[in-house]
Specification:
Elements: E1 3-7, H1 12-23, E2 27-32, E3 45-48, H2 54-60, E4 67-70, H3 78-81, H4 87-107, E5 112-118, H5 148-167, E6 170-176, E7 179-180, H6 193-203, E8 209-213, E9 219-220, E10 223-224, H7 225-237, E11 244-246, E12 252-253, H8 254-265, E13 270-274, H9 288-294, H10 302-329
Parallel strand pairs: 1-2, 1-4, 2-3, 4-5, 5-6, 6-11, 7-10, 8-13
Antiparallel strand pairs: 9-12
Helix pairs in contact: 2-4, 4-5, 6-8, 6-10, 8-10
Bound molecules: nicotinamide-adenine-dinucleotide.
Nicotinamide-adenine-dinucleotide (NAD) is lined by residues 8, 10-14, 32-34, 50-52, 71-75, 93, 97, 116, 118, 176, 178-179, 192.
């Protein structure tokens, strides 16, 4: 049994990671500003605290931990990251969390630390062609991420690597590509495309209309949460530091994603394209390096993931509707 600390344990990936680690027999402490929203945490211990404060980070790492997973970040989907309205918070809050956490880990002699970076670090100039985006790990430089979120992630990658170089900390860095699944943000302004379209489709009457930002011809790939966790585990168990992509290579247009969700929901809807924040024109995970270093790459189909995610979001939509109805009845 390992003693493990998960920061950001109240969030989407963190709450799933806690479940995964506890199920595997580890003792886990979670830290976050909040408890997970959609189910009880499985963590053995949970600290509610703001990791922008160094004393909270020291309290979080107040004992020996075999592994620390640093997932806490001020983040969200396109509506949060690409409008520009949250840039100062994104940079300041997430950078502080990483600066404080690496120092707290160093002081308590934690040896092994996982850091969740993002596909958003890749330069915009390699992602203009929706059919041929380039995201091999070594294509990160010359750097030119299209968001402050990406710049902060790149800075923090260097921060963790510096502590490895100068102080010998054992670091693992993954660049996640659009992770999705049940129990993630779906209606709070931080939701990403799969959750947003599941919600829109679940809310629409059959034959109706849903809105989509942009022409829907931009491409992305989406990775189901279970395979993200498997990738993280395999990276932690390997000798490879990264950074390495953890993402799916099944690239689709956003129009195709929406059509797939409609098919799974059994609804025929019209897509109305409206202006909105978009991000790069094309992005896909390049899995050559992960195959080479870990002898493994994700292969779960997008359809299978959406088939598990749509019913959960539909359940949330219905529950919200029922709550509103019973409130207005009373
Ligand atoms: P999330 O927003 O659900 O989880 C992040 C958690 O960090 C939240 O619960 C939030 O409350 C917590 N947090 C934020 N500020 C904090 C603070 N000051 N102190 C303590 N906790 C704080 O996001 P997620 O999707 O679970 O992402 C987890 C990590 O993976 C993040 O670092 C994110 O940048 C990275 N990532 C995620 C994706 C994805 O598709 N979900 C893609 C690339 C990278």
């Amino acid at each position: 049994m390992s003693r493990i600390l998960v920061t950001g344990a109240g969030g989407f990936i963190g709450s799933h990671l806690v479940k995964y680690l506890v199920a595997q027999g580890d003792w886990v402490r979670g830290v976050d500003l909040k408890y997970p929203e959609f189910s009880e945490t499985d963590a053995n211990d949970f600290i509610i605290g703001d990791l922008r404060n160094p004393p909270i980070c020291r309290q979080a790492v107040d004992q020996h931990f075999d592994e620390v997973y640093q997932l806490a970040a001020d983040m969200g989907g396109a509506g949060f990251v690409f409008t520009g309205d949250n840039d100062a918070d994104i940079m300041h809050n997430s950078a502080l969390i990483n600066l404080n956490m690496i120092e707290a880990c160093y002081r308590r002699n934690v040896r092994k630390i996982f850091y969740s970076s993002s596909a958003c670090i890749y330069p915009e100039y390699n992602q203009m062609d929706p059919d041929n985006p380039k995201t091999s790990e070594d294509s990160a430089y010359p750097a030119n991420p299209d968001s402050e979120y990406g710049w902060e992630k790149l800075f923090s990658e260097h921060l963790y690597i510096s502590f490895h170089k100068n102080y010998g900390l054992d670091i693992r860095i993954a660049r996640f590509h659009n992770i999705f699944g049940p129990e993630g943000s779906w209606n709070d302004g931080r939701e990403k495309a799969p959750a947003a379209f599941c919600r829109k489709v679940a809310e629409a009457e059959d034959g109706g209309e849903i809105e989509m930002w942009g022409d829907g011809k931009q491409t992305r790939s989406f990775l189901y949460i279970d395979e993200c966790l498997e990738g993280v585990r395999r990276l932690m168990d390997s000798e490879f530091m990264g950074p390495v992509n953890i993402g799916s290579e099944e690239m689709v247009t956003i129009n195709q994603l929406a059509e797939m969700i409609m098919e799974i929901a059994g609804k025929k809807l019209t897509i109305k394209h409206v202006p909105g924040p978009l991000g790069v024109r094309g992005r896909n995970s390049d899995n050559k390096l992960i195959r080479e270093k870990l002898g493994w790459a994700p292969n779960y189909s997008l359809k299978k993931g959406v088939e598990k995610t749509y019913p959960w979001i539909k359940g949330q939509v219905n529950q919200l509707k029922d709550n509103k109805t019973s409130f207005s009845d009373s």
